[in-house]
Design goal:
This protein has about 475 residues and is α/β, with parallel strands linked by helices. It has eleven helices and 17 strands. It starts with a helix and ends in an 8-residue tail after the last strand. The model has no long low-confidence stretch (mean pLDDT about 95). Bound molecules: 1-methylethyl 1-thio-beta-D-galactopyranoside.
Length: about 475
């Protein structure tokens, strides 16, 4: 009788220890709240719009072009916002001032702006129309205020101290008068003379006026950067792509393009990669490129190599001379959304029986990887940096794509993984494209020739700490993009 009571007590103790399993401890640098929120947006739109739109073959004006060229005939920022909503893009960044220095809002600090354009008799304000339209339709507004300014440079009196203050005033205007701004962009192009002390002053303004605003930083502004450049303008992140990087690599971008692209596993700073690319060859709209808009299949490839490589895609949709997103651009970006939604609608593992080799127990069950919940995840026990998770299906399924997500708040944990399939649960074949992968992070997507299998196995082969996997799934790519 005594023994029985003891066994009961032991049983309840073990059960409660199990359900009370502690969450894994974070490892290495971890994201701040802004960065987690930024990752969850996945795709952000870029709007390059300004004087360059009205010049032939110009994408970086020299600052001498007359302001009288700027005259959109049908500007409708609600049309931009509706396009983003249809494409499932939650945020857009407007070039309020690009390298030519022309300002899309009536700045009190320069004449080189919409005030001196024929548009709306000089009474217009593109930033206001943009921010109001986006806020009213529930899309986030963000702003690019180019650090490099060719128009200001034309003055014989130009010096960086005065320019620092000029830019600070403009940044204050943009971040004070137009409601919430979610990202600001410090383009490194042409900006080498702008030193870290200058950015220190500007960063203080961003953090004070809009604490939720993500800073895209480069070169001398890396110290304030929430996100980094990915090292190219093709929208292609590295493989691997770590969110961490040695912060010095960002300062010296020329010598470290590969590091920007791939990140560095043991980097000292958490500064994930943003992948910028234009839907057209140029950043600004030029009608001759109407026949060169990236197709849905090309955009899908970019999505899989940016969002699907632990990055965020910053996709440029340049408004045309009317001030509208061109119908081809919007059709293709909406097509991309359809391809994404169709592909990831059904995780073919969703009814699988899941078993893990090194479970943590408690609420960290292996089945959490297929439960679609944003709040649950699988974790192994603290002694395990490797694992094997087997998904057993009721019947064989055919798939040509997989997606995996780590719990980013806990840092980069897994550093080696492979995926195999089997039809008897004994003899396994590795998927060649999923062999010896390294980073996971927010999301990793792989595509391969169709495989039909009853069993799928995720092998975690290497790690800094026990795996914490949020989602694992296999999918059939949408007919819109599969060959
Ligand atoms: C490049 C800058 O050097 C880099 O800092 C970043 O701002 C990037 O642009 C954004 O695309 S310059 C470009 C001509 C490669």
């Amino acid at each position: 009788m005594k023994k029985q009571r003891f066994l009961f007590a032991l049983f309840f103790l073990l059960v409660s220890l199990n359900t009370l399993a502690q969450a894994p401890k974070p490892v290495g640098p971890t994201p701040n709240e802004r960065q987690i929120d930024w990752y969850n947006q996945e795709i952000i739109a870029f709007f390059h719009f300004g004087l360059n739109t009205y010049e032939e073959f110009v994408n970086e004006g020299d600052g001498r072009t007359t302001t009288s060229l700027f005259n959109p005939t049908a500007l409708d920022c609600k049309q931009w916002a509706r396009t983003l909503k249809a494409a499932g893009i939650p945020n857009g960044i407007l070039t309020a001032k690009h390298a030519d220095g022309f300002c899309l809002w009536p700045s009190a600090y320069t004449d080189y702006c919409v005030k001196n354009s024929p548009w709306k008799g000089g009474k217009g304000d593109v930033v206001k129309e943009f921010a109001d339209a986006f806020n009213s339709l529930g899309v986030r507004a963000s702003v690019y205020l180019g650090p490099h300014d060719r128009h200001e440079h034309l003055s014989p009196l130009y010096n960086t101290t005065d320019y620092r203050d000029y830019y600070a005033h403009q940044l204050t205007e943009l971040l004070s008068n137009y409601g919430p701004m979610w990202e600001t962009w410090w383009d490194g192009a042409g900006a080498d003379e702008l030193t870290t002390p200058i950015y220190t002053k500007w960063a203080e303004i961003v953090r004070r006026l809009q604490p939720q605003c993500v800073i895209f930083g480069t070169k001398n502004s890396y110290r304030f950067a929430d996100v980094r450049w990915n090292g190219n303008e093709s929208g292609i992140a590295g493989d691997p792509c770590w969110s961490t990087i040695d912060s010095l690599s960002i300062r010296d971008e020329h010598a470290h393009i590969k590091d920007l692209n791939e990140g560095q596993l043991n980097g000292d700073a958490y500064i994930p990669a943003e992948s910028d690319v234009s839907i057209r060859p140029s950043w600004f709209y030029h009608s001759e490129e109407d026949v060169m808009v990236k197709s849905v299949a090309e955009l899908w490839d970019i999505y899989c190599k940016s969002v699907g490589r632990n990055s965020v895609l910053l996709l440029n949709l340049p408004p045309d001379r009317r001030g509208l997103i061109h119908p081809i651009d919007s059709a293709n970006v909406v097509g991309l959304r359809k391809a994404i939604d169709e592909t990831f609608h059904t995780n073919l593992l969703e009814d699988a029986k899941v078993t893990a080799k090194n479970p943590r127990g408690g609420e960290y069950a292996a089945a959490n990887m297929i439960d679609k919940s944003p709040d649950t995840y699988y974790a192994a026990n603290d002694n395990a940096t490797t694992d094997e998770i087997v998904f057993e299906l009721n019947s064989p399924k055919t798939f040509d794509c997989l997606m995996i997500q780590e719990v980013i708040a806990l840092g980069h944990r897994t550093t080696g993984w492979s995926v195999d399939y089997s039809n008897d649960g004994k003899k396994w074949t590795v998927i060649p494209e999923a062999n010896n992968k390294q980073s996971i992070g927010h999301k990793w997507i792989l595509r391969f020739s169709p495989v039909t299998a009853k069993y799928v196995r995720l092998r975690i082969t290497k790690g800094k700490a026990c795996p914490a996997i949020h989602t694992f799934g296999v999918y059939k790519q949408s007919a819109l993009v599969s060959k």
